[in-house]
Amino acid sequence: MYAHSLEEVSTEYGRNGPINVTLFTTAEREWETCRHNIDDQVLQRNKIDCPSCGKEPLVRSSDAIVKLRRLSSAGKVHNPENERTMEQPQARFGNLVIKSDTEVENFRQRIYNKVSSVRNYISFETTSFDMLDYDMINHDFITKKKQMCGGSAFKAAREDSNEQKKYDETGLVVSSCKHCIVPYAINMFKGESWTHTAFMHNEAMKSNAKFFCYDVVCQYWKWMKTKVARHFPEYRNLTSEMTGILPIMHKNAHQLPCKILWNPRWTTGIGLTGGEEHEQVFSKLYLYAYVLKHMAKHKTIF
């Protein structure tokens, strides 16, 4: 559309000759890549870290935006061989913001291989199933239902996820600082699961964040401590050295104990951080939803 508009403007001012859309698009991508390489390699600018947060950000708030999905039929009309594989071509900007699909899948599969049975839910202090919640015992209930707190109407991630054949990519998991800067994100190829959140949680730990905000942090924190930490000692610091909080708006849909235990207003050191910064980022990303779901994978590798 932009190229056609530019062509009409050129004709209006007496300049002849059509604009080759393919060459124009290629030139624009090469120019953006050149600008990025100058900023990154010559000027050595850090374009993803928040200058206000510095090297020790206070909080990372993470959630999935399911509207940024790609139809499985995208790109196959003209190129039937355009099938997604885990071995993708090198992105123009590397893995600057969106992490490697292979890296994410290896992380998630490593956890699934260890924590796939309900017996793993038993924590170090637990000696009988009587001490566990019903949700923790009934594994079928957990994997088939959205995990919510109390009578919450908010649908959030769960331990496992189902494949959606209609979509090649089912969304994007985004992490944001309190100033709405996105340092990293990951693609989803199934529904949102806690292993996606665990990957973002681990990245938050690497960035020296002190707090981790998530819509159902009450359920996720329990899963992380009783299942993941038991089999992966290297991840115990995710819950022992970081503090989980609920977003200020989402907490109203939780039960009273959660409103007290995970309330950001009653958490020392968090200040007036609301934890809804990722939702502000989503309000911007929603604008690209219609374009991206019809765009072929190879056209968005940046």
Number of domain modules: 2
How far apart the termini lie comes to 21 Å
Shape: elongated
Over all CA atoms, what is the radius of gyration? 22 Å
Strand order, sheet with most strands: 5-4-1-6-7
Number of strands: 7
**What's the helical proportion of residues?**
25-40%
Determine the oligomeric state from the structure: single chain
Number of helices: 11
The low-confidence runs, each spanning 5 or more residues with pLDDT under 50, are 117-146
How much of the sequence lies in strands comes to 5-15%
Secondary structure category: alpha/beta
Order of helices and strands: HHEEHHHEEEHEHHEHHH
The biggest sheet amounts to: 5 strands, mixed
Mean pLDDT: 77
Task: Write up this protein.
This is CxC3 like cysteine cluster domain-containing protein. Pfam families: KDZ (PF18758). InterPro entries: KDZ (IPR040521). It is a single chain. The chain contains eleven helices and seven strands. The protein has helices at 2-12, 21-42, 101-114, 134-137, 139-144, 194-206, 217-231, 237-240, 256-261, 277-285, 289-293; strands spanning 59-65, 70-71, 167-169, 171-176, 184-188, 211-213, 243-245. α3 (101-114) crosses α6 (194-206). The radius of gyration is 22 Å and the shape is elongated. It starts with a helix and ends in a 9-residue tail after the last helix. Residues 117-146 have low confidence and may be disordered.
